[in-house]
Amino acid sequence: xDIYSYALFSFGLTAVISLLLIAVVVGLNKVMHKLNIxxxxxx
Length: 43
Hints:
The protein is mostly helical. It has one helix at 3-42.
């Protein structure tokens, strides 16, 4: 594996990991928002 393919692989892996983390944060935010709305309705 030469330096260019390694750099491209590392960049791609970093992009995939960051997108996955963003997806997890957005998903958790939506779930917490739904739970917060349900708590407000019950009160």
